[in-house]
Write a structure and sequence with these properties.
Elements (H helix, E strand, L loop, with lengths): L1 H37 L12 H6 L2 H4 L1 H4 L1 E5 L2 H15 L25 E4 L4 E6 L3 E2 L15 E2 L3 E6 L1 E10 H5 L1 H26 L20 H4 L9 H14 L6 E4 L1 H8 L20 E2 L2 E5 L7 E5 L1 H4 E14 L5 H4 L1 E14 L5 E5 L6
Parallel strand pairs: 2-12, 8-10
Antiparallel strand pairs: 1-12, 3-6, 4-5, 7-13, 8-11, 9-10, 11-14, 12-13
């Protein structure tokens, strides 16, 4: 029995060492890929620090060997800059990728940046939502009766603060390699958290533990029934997009962006006329995504065959309760006995949809009677 226990312990130790080498190898490859993409020398002091850079340079990380615990909450402005820096990196075409390393997808995340951000120190935000207005203003003859404009009663709404977080275990080898750890934080943990927030902003349920998504019932306006009888005979999706834009403009709201699932945008971009010419200009112009002068954003977080057309800066506000924070500790589960370290990243925020008329959404198909 003792012999079996020793053999089992030896196997566990061997597996942890192998995992440590693999994690370090992956993180180093990520860092090399990031540096080659940016083409920035490692000793260049002029570029903006990323989230991982700031973490490994912090006093908490430097003292981890003594305290066995590191927690740091970043300045909200610094995190915004770091996130923008990370997003700009992901959009740079890299001429080289190290053979044998396959990283997770990191499509650009654009939705959160469309909204205004307000820092708060409370656990919820209350705001007054204006009621509907019936504008009866008119030219009045001398001594004539003046018309009355009426308003429905305003309502008080509450935006709850939610926590978005995830964690992973890493080996001591990776934790001790500051360069590799920087890449691991930037390209795995930070990106994963931001991707989840983007999905929540679009499809969140709006309960105590989720943000209210733009496409959740009650958070958007579906004008399809009103537009259906106005569309010309044989109308296609291009006609529908134009009528959507026109209707929003008729409400004195300027549409800022269309948002589609990538597959739906691809289907539009692939359409051709009877002579085989691309309706949207073909491959040489596909990089400029727009419909009727309105820029187009594609996001995998938008369900297929759904759409958004909105003035995002008017529609809602993101309330930042706590900026992104990182915590590192070996005092978790069996970490101490297995030489593992838990790394956790989290963020607290709320989302208020303040102007539903500024958000059009629904099924991306031509409405029928």
């Amino acid at each position: 029995m003792e012999k079996d226990n020793k053999a089992s312990q030896k196997a566990v130790t061997s597996e942890i060492e192998r995992l440590g080498k693999e994690q370090t190898k992956l993180a180093q490859a990520l860092n090399e890929f990031e540096q080659k993409s940016l083409n920035v020398p490692s000793d260049d002091k002029t570029h903006t620090s990323s989230l991982g850079d700031m973490f490994v340079k912090s006093t908490a990380y430097q003292n981890f060997g003594d305290t066995h615990r590191a927690i740091i909450e970043f300045d909200k402005a610094a995190v915004t800059t770091a996130a923008s820096n990370s997003a700009s990196r992901s959009s740079v075409s890299a001429p080289y990728m190290r053979p044998g390393i396959l990283t997770l997808p990191d499509a650009p995340l654009q939705i959160e940046a469309l909204f205004a951000h307000v820092p708060i120190s409370e656990n919820s935000v209350q705001y007054v939502k204006e009621g509907a207005m019936t504008n009866n203003a008119a030219v009045v003859a001398e001594a004539g009766n003046k018309p009355e404009t009426t308003f429905t009663a305003p309502t008080i709404k509450t935006a709850e603060i939610v926590t978005v977080a995830h964690w992973t275990r890493i080996t001591r080898q990776l934790a001790a390699d500051s360069v590799a750890l920087t890449a691991y934080i930037n390209q795995k943990l930070q990106y994963g958290l931001s991707a989840k927030i983007e999905a929540q902003l679009i499809t969140g349920k709006g309960n105590a533990s989720e943000l209210p998504g733009l496409l959740n019932t009650g958070n958007f306006t579906d004008p399809s029934k009103e537009l259906q009888p106005k569309l010309p005979a044989g109308a296609d999706l291009f006609d529908y997009a134009l009528f959507l834009k026109s209707k929003m403009e008729s409400s004195n709201i300027t549409p800022e962006y269309f948002v589609f699932n990538p597959a739906d945008w691809t289907a539009l971009a692939a359409l051709k006329d009877k002579q085989g010419r691309y309706l949207l200009g073909g491959p040489q112009t596909v990089a400029t995504k727009s419909l009727w002068g309105v820029p187009v954003i594609t996001s995998a977080s938008v369900p297929a065959e759904k759409f958004l057309l909105a003035n995002f800066s008017l529609a809602g506000t993101i309330y930042d309760r706590e900026a992104m924070s990182l915590a590192m500790s070996e005092s978790d589960s069996s970490n101490f006995t297995q030489n593992l370290i838990t790394l956790r990243v989290e963020r607290r925020l709320g989302f208020a949809i303040e102007q539903v008329p500024a958000i059009y959404g629904g099924a991306w198909k031509v409405p029928t009677a």
